[in-house]
Amino acid sequence: MASTKIEQGEDKTSTNLIVNYLPQTMSDKELFSMFVTIGPIESCRVMKDYKTGYSYGFGFVNYIKEEDADHAIAQLNGHQVGNKRIKVSYARPSGDNIKETNLYVTNLPKSITEEQLEGLFNRFGTIVQKNLLRDKLTGYPRGVAFIRYNLKEEANEAIRCMDGFIPEGTVEKITVRIAEEHGKQKAAYYAGFQAGYQNRGIFYNILDNDNFGL
After folding, report:
1. Which residues are within 8 A (CB) of 160 and not within 5 positions of it... i.e. 6 or more apart?
2. Which residues form the RRM domain (predicted)?
3. Which fold has domain 102-178?
4. Which numeric CATH code is attached to 16-89?
5. Is the pTM of this model over 0.70?
């Protein structure tokens, strides 16, 4: 597939990629194995809750060469992994316009599908990640989801229009708000990941990890 274009006025980190829509079971090793076929990797990681180990469904891959990062987007963006198509793009630098973009949605119909969830929220902007939480025993939706937009104003518009909205066929209003604590944990991970590029002693480097058997 063609490379993902960087929006006008948006800087890119030329070797650092963000990979969205990863399967919940994907490990660091599997992510590395998928992307190292393109070229040498500086470091990579699937982002998880540091207490529970729950995968957030996205990760970062940092290549040594800029051209390998570009080739990875061209070849792996939209690649089918299990029942998901991953999204590969340049990781965005930090800034106010990408803060508070992660929404916590509750009181969703228990019968809702991921496609229906996206249909409710994609009219407000670009969804870079969505996660419909499911019961671990039954596999059925719990009526709770996380949705991350590309920009803060998109998330704000979704809150304005969807908080209190009653989906068709239901009587309960859904609630939509900023996922503050959830977002803070991700931000801490992201900050640590970026710092790791500058100081390998601080952050996990996949090339030095013997558990990968490479």
Report:
1. none
2. 15-93, 101-181
3. Alpha-Beta Plaits (3.30.70)
4. 3.30.70.330
5. no
